[in-house]
Every structure is written in structure tokens, then in C-alpha cells.
Amino acid sequence: MSELLELGLTEARDALKSKKITSAELTEAYIGAMEEGKSLNAFITETPEKAREMAKASDAKLAEGKGGAMEGLPIGMKDLFCTKGVLTSAGSHILDGFEPEYESTVSQNLWDAGAVMLGKLNLDEFAMGSANITSYYGNVENPWRREGGGNQKLVPGGSSGGSAAAVSGRLAIAATGTDTGGSIRQPASFCGIVGMKPTYGRCSRWGIVAFASSLDQAGPITRNVKDAALMLGAMAGHDPKDSTSANLAVPDFEAALTGDIRGMKIGIPKEYRMDGMPEEIDALWKRGAEMLKDAGAEIVDISLPHTKYALPTYYIIAPAEASSNLARYDGVRYGLRETGDSLIEMYENTRAAGFGDEVKRRVLIGTYVLSAGYYDAYYLKAQKVRALLKKDFDDAYGQVDAILTPTAPSAAFAIGENQDDPIKMYLNDVFTVPASLVGLPGISVPVGLSGDGLPLGLQLLGKPFDEETVLKVGHVLEQAAGFNAKPAFLAGGK
């Protein structure tokens, strides 16, 4: 069984098509791994019987030589995607018992492509967090442990921490994630796997529980770049139900992985080299640039002058949109309802009991920056800075084909560390937020280990709807880095 768990997405696809394995065997291996891996708390809801039924249907299709791009491959769904008849919690108490009568477009696309659902994956409440410690369903644990650090439990990153932990810990062959300010790329970096945020509009947001509507974007979390290319192709596509969905054809992303980046120009933005950056992160970044240079790319120094304003801009716009989106949870239409002596008191009691502290903090910030008298000073000004950030990237892409940066300012940290310092927690997204604000595609690729044996990733950013270049360069970086370390969890570490 353990050999089956080591197959990547494309390897398993090929083995299924050549009938070396069956989807039922592969799915059963993952159901067993989920049972053994409960200590990671990666899943909120497991759906083993549904998975067995879907695998059986896939095997019937494969026996007839039919099936989609993901036929028979067992994956996990971040519990932010609505799935028909299956609890969709968004990691929040306020959605207790919510079982949608509909399917999100991304999950439907994946089922249409033949994917098998193992269950719904844990996340920071309403995707708000960078450590997966704000879920109503408890902290997710990173499968990695520090060398010489005893058995200290580490965060997997957030908000797609359950997805990243499941893929890294071999509890799912791949998983979906959503990225609002870095919530796919940062946990991928912390867990030593690949996470890709496509261009805003490439994947439909319909049926995804909204956090910040102008930022949220679905993407794949996988063990390697080739798997990301396969899964993104199955997830993406125009959706008339989402007015922000781009009406563009979906390229063959896997075919873009030619391995040839000779003559391409890779930008290194000087503003990402920040005061206090750990030496090992800086060294990894330089090493990544050398790898791409050795593969034939030209390294170009560029400037993104408004980078330092990106994080404060994000923490005005995202909470503003969140405060608006979360107004719908009032005890009437969804999930939890607390009683009260009046309608207003019922609203108040439900929202007070249903939302966690981080969600309440962001709703308060968002309500403040949108309030009369402060809208112009904060929200409107933030939107103007956002336009300047976009111009920075437009200018940069007049010189280069892609941009290389660190993914996160550190390796994974211990659960509880920084928990009482929200500003420090928000800084975890300092390198990923700029691309989110302007909707660009980005991928995090594991490139090396920290001094205490934890994975570190580098991020590649591309032009809008040029995921092919991002994947192509990411694949070359991955091959050059040769990252093959595995988490302690797989060696029996707890």
C-alpha cells in the first residue's frame, strides 16, 4: 500500500490508464492513510464511502478505455468549496450543519474530470490566517519536525494548511486550495510541496465561500509541478455563473513543461530583499537564481517600488471585503442560530458565538475602513495604491518573463508561536500578497531545507494568464533543486 502512496498525480494517472493499478486500490490506500494520519487533523469531514463509490465508477470507465484527465485519482477538497450534500464549514462554528444543495464549479469540474473525493480539508476560519490555528475544528499539524527540536508541533501554514498537510503527509494525492493573500503558496512552502495560485479569473469562484471577493482564487496543491499542471487544467475554465471568470481557453499546461528556458529573462526585485531577512532565505533565493541562470535564463535586476505598501494595502482591502461578505451569516440563512429576545439580539448572539476571534478582528477592521468619514482615508487610498502596485508589475513585465522571490520570510514555526501578535502573523504573507493584489499567477516550489531541516520554497510570478511560463520555469527550478526530502511523519514521527 505504501508504494501506492508514493505515486504522484501524473504517475498514478499513467498507472491507472495502463491498468497496473485500479482506482479502488489507490483510493483504499488513501482511506487507510487518512485513518492512520488523524493526528495531523487535516480533514474536517472524511467521505470514505463516497470515495469508494466514485473509485468504482472510475474503474468501470477506465476498463472501457474512457475517463477524464483526473479519472480515478483520490483528492482532498479544502472545506471552503461547496460540495453537494457534504458538510461545508469554512472552518467556522457559524456554518454548523450546512450541507449545500449545489456543487462549486471547481469541484464539479474535478468530478467531471474523474477525480475521487476523499473528504473536506481543514483551514483557517473563513480562510483568515497564515498558520491554520484559527479553525473551529482545531489546529492542523505540519507533518515536518525540526531536526533536534524534540517533538515540537509546527504549523502547516495557512489558510490551506489542511490541504498542504494532507498532500505532504500522503493523506491525499493532491488537494484544492484557495489563495487570497498567499494561502496556497505559503503553506506549500512550509510543507515542502508545490502550491499554485493561477491568475484571478482563471478558476471560477462560484460556490467557494467568499472571504475577499476581488482576491480569492482557487488553485492546486500537489507534490510536484507536473501534477500542478495536470490538476490546474482540470480545475480551470470559463464559468458564466461567475462574472469575474475569464472567458479564455484553457491551455495544455502539461505540454508547457518543455524544460527549455534558454533566453528567458527572470526578474529579481530589489525591494523583496527586506531588512532583517534571514540569511538562509537570502542564500536560497540567490541559489535559485543561479539554478535558472545555469539553465540558460538571464537574471535581471528589477524594481517594484511600491512593494512596501502592499501588506498594509491588503489588510485594508481584504477585511473590508470580508466584513461585507460575512454580513450574510446572521442565524437566519445558514447553519448556527442562537436564540435571543428579539431579532437583533438573535443576530448578535449568533454572530458572537459563531465567529472566532480572528474573524471578529477582521470584520471590525473592515467595518471601520468602510465607515463614513474613513472610507476615503483608508479604503479609497488603498485602492489607489493597488493601482500603483499593478503599474509596478506591468513595467517589470516589459523587461522580464517571470519574477523570482522567496515564498515566505521563514520556515514553519511552532504552534502557538506568534499567536498573540497579529502583526507578526500578518507578515508571513509579505512576499505573496503583492501578486494577490494585482491578480497575477504564482507558484511556490520547494528548493531547500533550513538549518534545522525544514522545507523552504521559492516563488515564481508570471504575467496575467501566462500560467504556462510560470509552470515551465517552476518545473526547471524543481528539477535543478532536486528536492526529495520527506517529512518526519512519513518515517513514523508523530
UniProtKB/TrEMBL annotation:
Gene Ontology cellular component annotations, sorted alphabetically: glutamyl-tRNA(Gln) amidotransferase complex
Keyword Transmembrane: no
Protein keywords: ATP-binding, Ligase, Nucleotide-binding, Protein biosynthesis
Positions of the Amidase domain: 25-471
InterPro entries the UniProt entry points to: Amidase, Amidase_CS, Amidase_dom, AS_sf, GatA
GO biological process: translation
Residue numbers annotated as active site: 78 (charge relay system), 159 (charge relay system), 183 (acyl-ester intermediate)
Known EC number: 6.3.5.7
Entry annotated with the keyword DNA repair: no
MF GO annotations: ATP binding; glutaminyl-tRNA synthase (glutamine-hydrolyzing) activity
Catalysis: reaction(s): L-glutamyl-tRNA(Gln) + L-glutamine + ATP + H2O = L-glutaminyl-tRNA(Gln) + L-glutamate + ADP + phosphate + H(+)
Pfam families: Amidase
Subunit structure as annotated in this protein's UniProt entry: Heterotrimer of A, B and C subunits.
Membership in a protein family: Belongs to the amidase family. GatA subfamily.
Role of this protein: Allows the formation of correctly charged Gln-tRNA(Gln) through the transamidation of misacylated Glu-tRNA(Gln) in organisms which lack glutaminyl-tRNA synthetase. The reaction takes place in the presence of glutamine and ATP through an activated gamma-phospho-Glu-tRNA(Gln).
Protein name: Glutamyl-tRNA(Gln) amidotransferase subunit A
Species in which this protein is naturally found: Nisaea acidiphila
